[in-house]
Amino acid sequence: MLRLQRDGRDIWIHAWAEFTGKYRLTIVEKEAMAQDVVADAAALANDLKTSGHVAVDGVLFDTGKATIKSESAKAIEEIAKLLTADSKLKVYVVGHTDTVGSLDANMKLSQERAEAVVQALVKTHGIAASRLKSFGNGPYAPVASNEAEPSRARNRRVELVKQ
Are 146 and 99 in contact (CB under 8 A)? Predict the structure, then answer.
């Protein structure tokens, strides 16, 4: 087995020769894991229809801030598609947080994040503001334990709730 480092990347090469005269060459290149979990308008509509609410994957914020990260554009676009496809649909945009920090700060932050999503839908996608209401739920409706970071990350989310 041969290991190379090229342009900051790790590459492993393994050559194997069988006694039958056959050869096998395996090349593995290490890359950073990419996770692209993003909302889908059809799935959002289905969940709203069946349960009345849905968590929107892919809406991201910096820690302690209500500014929507640029990588959230696709998720916001899918919410806009959902609302455009059903012109009568009205939703609450609900912000959630984990339990890190004070309750007052988390309540304020969750409200500001929900409002940021509403404003993005109104200003960028032309959704009527009368169809959207923001609500900050803070840490009051966790979907996972707040004991460890992976589960706290699940609690930091934006949901749509059918009005």
Answer: yes
**Three-class DSSP category at 143:** coil
What structural domains does the chain harbor? 1-34 (no CATH), 41-162 (3.30.1330.60)
Structure tokens at 93: 């945009």
What is residue 36's three-state secondary structure? coil
| Chunked mean pLDDT (size 10), the chain, 163 residues | 84 89 88 69 96 95 94 96 97 97 97 98 98 98 94 95 97
75 closest CA partner among 109, 107, 40, 26: 40
Can you tell me which residue has the tokens 């503001």?
A: 129
CA neighbours closer than 13 Å in the CB half-sphere of residue 19? 0
Sheet holding 91-96, edge to edge: 53-56, 158-162, 91-96, 132-138
3-state SS, residue 24? strand
- Angle, alpha carbons 21-23-28 (nearest 5°): 170
